[in-house]
Amino acid sequence: MFIATTSAPVNIACIKYWGKRDTKLILPTNSSLSVTLDQDHLRSTTTSRADASFTKDRLWLNGVEEDIKPGGRMATCIAEMKRLRKELVENVDTSAPTLSTLFVHIASYNNFPTAAGLASSASGFAALTASLAALYALPSPPTELSLIARQGSGSACRSLMGGFVAWNAGTLDSGVDSHAVQIAAETHWPDIHALICVVSDTKKGTSSTSGMQRTVETSPLLQHRIKHVVPQRMKTISEAILAKDFDRFAEITMADSNQFHAVCLDTSPPIFYMNDVSRAIIAVIEEYNRVALLPENGGKRKAAYTYDAGPNAVIYAPAAHIKEIISLIAHFFPQQETFKDPFGLFGPNGIGTGSFAAGFNVNVAKTWETGAVKSLIHTKVGDGPRVLGQADSVLGQDGLPKSLQL
Amino acid sequence: MFIATTSAPVNIACIKYWGKRDTKLILPTNSSLSVTLDQDHLRSTTTSRADASFTKDRLWLNGVEEDIKPGGRMATCIAEMKRLRKELVENVDTSAPTLSTLFVHIASYNNFPTAAGLASSASGFAALTASLAALYALPSPPTELSLIARQGSGSACRSLMGGFVAWNAGTLDSGVDSHAVQIAAETHWPDIHALICVVSDTKKGTSSTSGMQRTVETSPLLQHRIKHVVPQRMKTISEAILAKDFDRFAEITMADSNQFHAVCLDTSPPIFYMNDVSRAIIAVIEEYNRVALLPENGGKRKAAYTYDAGPNAVIYAPAAHIKEIISLIAHFFPQQETFKDPFGLFGPNGIGTGSFAAGFNVNVAKTWETGAVKSLIHTKVGDGPRVLGQADSVLGQDGLPKSLQL
């Protein structure tokens, strides 16, 4: 039986991807950089199987079959992987099974609810690409595979590596230089933790696919960001990562999140992803950093917020501060759900009410109603895709997805 | 008795002023352009009196005495006006009373509540300048006086003229070329109406004085706006005004409001003035324009929102559409106060529930709780400062401010 299962991580960008120079190949207008989050907490798990009995390529997402449209993103990724199988394996070793000629069944599950508002396309397309690479026994390194995952969903290319990952925009029309590269492995700076604040939102936001092209077409400020701001920030944040300089990393991460939302606002009609709760979280973290930046407190930032195309905050922080930050957020945004405490920071009494550093101005935000921040997810920097064993397969013997509880 | 009373209007910018190149002289980093609103509805009324019995310069705002700090903005304006009196009147006509040597008492009242969140500094400093100009019988045209008002509050220089007024940034260090000029009088395009939506806000915003300098110091996007975007927009919107092209006027006005808030967001720490209610008003007006832009509906925008340094919306629209817009806003933002209907648009039954154009998507915003928009003020483009008679004086015979009910 030709079958392979992999899991792949979520990534959250510090330097944001917003705008395509080629919408079919998914080539971005600027480079971006992200932190890969730990698959122990958030992951997509995908099983791919090739079999002569299959009559067409099929794909199920969380147990529901997706329509693989000809020329669409899923079809492109599958076709590209079959092409690599043929070129790199079958053409080289004529004894290798000609899997490139067989149809595949692919099943993928996310272990986090869609309602969490986390972009699942990045981990999903990374897991798809990695599972087909394992099925096809490709010799390709992650950077090569990232070219394929990119054509499924741009930011998916960054989920093919662990740690701190850049997606170089590239300049070629073919897109062969628009791939991911690892700036530093998760083992270089394992101290980076992340707190995801899932924010309630009644309003359906603009999809990032259509939103980013509207920005490309209408924002006068975007071109300045692309040409002059991002190149400098890519360089500086890479240096900060290599030097494990959290203060600098935080400064750039927050500035770039805000600039991404600024160019959204500079779009016609304007695009808003953050709401009043998102802004209150910013106010709390800015105040937390203001106190931390006082000379008597060490003079360095202790947290960095960042927001993708939605109201959820992701707060990066060194491990030493994350407990304090969780308490701080839970103070202003009381939690209904019990905090899942994967690192065992809190005792049986839970988060508690927290305490404030001397000089912290509690009036920067009001205490919100319970549920304004629906849940808090604590995780950390993690590794790239993992090849799993048969026991982890999410496709059954019958070639159909297993029934899994999410 | 040497006394003069004037009233001066509020202005609301279409091309926003944000950033100073000289904080003492109040020289801006970019030119701006505004619509002067009708003093019949919103105004500052100021009486200035010079008398040999006065022992110091004194000023009362809404009946409360202000401290005229040496070297401060009020002291600068008063000193500059005395200088002009001496140079342009007393030095020329030696029989003229030497009012420049006398202390003044100045009383100023706004006819709109501070809680309305309207910037009163523009109308206030314009009325102060205009009343001293009347007291001192200065021959100076409004452009000359705008140089003085500008040193009180930058945007006040634009309130010295009616209609559509540009404030040219100028390039000289002395600031003598940084003054207001009238692009078109209110009589050129009297069709422009305005609806002010006063939005509740619990959070105290960043003051514009400190906020704009933080943007100058930290926003990478502001420089692009200053150098490349605003000059083009000043030209284009001036042309639109002269051509009475509301569609173009609206397009630029909304884009520039959004870009101003974008550079605020690009500031470190970020500055937010709009809240979820502000954004919902944007969504409603964008949808209203989307329908209006359909070829079968004429293909032209019918309204333009703009936001200053706060959550209030000002909606500009041709007179023909303003009734529909008031109903639209009142539908999504139910009013507690009875609408003051200065143009008699509605009958005794009030605003009513309104109706929607075919194809209007009512789901672009929810129906908010009563009071989310506290009140609606309907006004229109209006004239520059008016010299009033003794009957309108807000200083009593005793040289102290009259007790007025606001």
Automatic annotation (TrEMBL), chains A, B:
Mvd1 C-terminal domain ranges (all copies): 194-388
Protein's UniProt name: Diphosphomevalonate decarboxylase
Molecular functions per Gene Ontology: ATP binding; diphosphomevalonate decarboxylase activity
Protein family membership: Belongs to the diphosphomevalonate decarboxylase family.
Keywords: ATP-binding, Lipid biosynthesis, Lipid metabolism, Lyase, Nucleotide-binding, Steroid biosynthesis, Steroid metabolism, Sterol biosynthesis, Sterol metabolism
Top-level taxon in the UniProt lineage: Eukaryota
Catalytic activity: (R)-5-diphosphomevalonate + ATP = isopentenyl diphosphate + ADP + phosphate + CO2
Pfam families assigned: MDD_C (PF18376), MVD-like_N (PF22700)
